[in-house]
Amino acid sequence: MNTGKVTVLNVDDPQVPALVERCQRGEREALGEFYRRYRQDVTRNLTRVLGPGRGDLEDVLQDVFIEAFRAIGRFRGDSKLSTWLYRVCINVALQRLRKRKRLAEVPADDVAESVSDQTPERGLDSRRRLDAVYRILDHLSPKKRVVFVLHEIEGREPKEIAGIVGAPVLTVRTRLHYARKEFYARAAAEPKLDGGQQS
Amino acid sequence: MSCLRADRLADYAGGKLSSGATATVEKHVQACARCRTALARVQAAQDVMRESLELPVPDVGGVRTEATIRWLRVRPQPPARPAFVVALGLAACAAGALLLVGREPAKVPIAPPKIAVAPPVRPAAVRLQALITLLGGDVSLDRAGRVTPLQASALVEGGDRMVTAPGARVAAQWGEGSGWLLGPDAELALAELTPLSQKLELERGKIEVRVGARRPGETMQVSAPAHVITVRGTWFTVAADASRTTVEVFEGVVEVTERGGTATTLLRAPATAVFGRGRSSTSPLDPREADARRLRSQLNLLPFAAGLHGALDASALLAVRSEPEGALAVDGVDLGATPLAVRRPLGRHYVELTRAQWKPIRRWVSLGPETGELRLALVRAETIPEPSGPVAVEQMVRERGRQIRACYERSLKRDPTLAGTVSLRLRVGDAGQVTGVRVEDSTLEDPQVADCLRHEAAGWSFKTGRNATVVYPFVFRPQ
């Protein structure tokens, strides 16, 4: 499902190289600025991969920035900072998903807090269906899930996904094929996705 | 007529099929009720995913997370030197060597060869260093007559002397399972610290010592002004002043000898004894009290099997400051008042900061290889609306202790060193019943413990506390 809507982190502006340099020197103020600048984007991307309404979001957010600050010394500007941070974000999310699988976590019942511009009934119905979608995603392996979200929700092409997850394009295509097959087979059998009649 | 695959229906819904394939799918769907339902659900899933792009971003990671991140002092790793530069360097060396070999020898008078005799390799001076694992309050270090404030990152060695101010404490570790905790207002000299002999001299105050497995011939003793306590594989505390020495033994046996005298007493755990000049009184220590004391111990021992440097590599210092000061517990062990620095293994740790009348702070902290600093601000309890009475988790944990222990002990049989913390998030409903359990985090290697706990907690019902969510950490350590 390519919506034509690609999620990107802030487009790098001219101040970014200076900010990176200050972060590389370990300036605490710069780390704070970096965090404030990218927090929203990282949160949005993590929510998409991990699912809304998860209690561990803040912890994962923290892990992303810790990992980013640790690795920023190796950032050489070959790609945009936003693209680089997105890669870190996906890798940390992947680790989190693996951990969830290991702990056999029971997902929280609560889903996204609000869906704007909708009546309460419609909003509730949307939330229920969104919850159903993420419950199906919970059944996919972490690697397949990430590829699926990047392609089906964010509309990214396999080549771009390959760059993000650090795998060959062919591998990404294979993962995507099986992820779609598994996801849509489960979705087709999921009564909660019926048009708002199910509880 | 067999039904269409769901991903094929998704391709159709997404307009990805050719016109011929689209017509085939449409024809099939019109005739097949099952595929019509499947298509509707697939389209619904696609709609939901599309709408999810518009969802508002959750407001997480506020001021506190920012403060945590800023104070974690993560030092960026230096850029890696590209491998080809190294390879190039090596190739250049090799080429140089080949050139030298291949060159015509210069016609110069040949000097008699000098035979270089390598000096015999002398073994490095055998000394043992101890790693500071906990530091709270003002502690001074006297090394060769130079007195400086003790730093949490320091290593101490034989000949050093430490003095703790009132309210201060310092813990150090020199081997696997071996370390000491010096209490407030105390003075300790490390008379000797070598792999085969450790002699600590306690001038005043109280010291808690735990000694792990020792090598043949290895001795360890603590001298108080009036007595000498020799260790035979144990865990004990010594409190001393000029004439009186109090010894509590939680594990193993210690031998107490009066200085300048011949009177020797063997103390077997669990026991407590008070020694004065020429007299002593010994009494057994309640085994439950001894167990409780061991569990509450602030010795903070780290895995030390790979030696001092291995322990340094696998751990990092976490410095915790708070405003105002509060009582800090890390991974369920009370470590005393902030500010303090504690050395813990790398990874996630459960930090709790409490102060009477103030809202406690409980959170997981990731500790990386660099020193981390955590600054926390407590908020007065009055400003926080109470949910509906406290949920009596502690009481429940006491009542269900046997079942909880069984979850851990089952896995402990497979891995006798299994230790860590499992944090459960419990949602308590209207009637006090647990309506949801989630494993918030676990540092245990074996996921079965967390799973077993989750099932156990799912059946709980609390007499007090309604409509609340609590996170409770279960700390497991082998006895």
Provide a compact summary of the structure:
The complex is a heterodimer of chains A (199) and B (479). With 199 residues, chain A is mostly helical.
Characterization of the model:
The complex is a heterodimer of chains A (199) and B (479). Chain A is mainly α and 199 residues long. Chain A has one domain (16-193): Orthogonal Bundle (Rna Polymerase Sigma Factor, Chain: A), CATH 1.10.1740.10. Chain A has eight helices and no strands. Chain A is globular and about 55 Å long. Residues 1-11 and 105-118 of chain A have low confidence and may be disordered. With 479 residues, chain B is an alpha+beta fold. Chain B has four domains: 6-48, no CATH class; 129-296, Sandwich (Jelly Rolls); 320-383, no CATH class; 393-476, TolA/TonB C-terminal domain (2-Layer Sandwich). Helices cover 25% and strands 38% of the residues of chain B. Chain B has ten helices and 29 strands. In chain B, the strands form four sheets. Chain B has a 20-stranded mixed β-sheet that branches. A four-stranded antiparallel β-sheet of chain B has the order 20-19-22-24, with no helix packed on it. In chain B, strands 28-27-29 form a three-stranded antiparallel β-sheet, covered by helices on one side. In chain B, helix 1 crosses helix 3. The radius of gyration of chain B is 32 Å and the shape is elongated. In chain B, 32% of the residues are buried. Classes of the chains: A mainly alpha (199), B alpha+beta (479). At the A-B interface, helix 2, helix 3, helix 5 and helix 8 of A face helix 1, helix 3, helix 4, strand 28 and helix 10 of B.
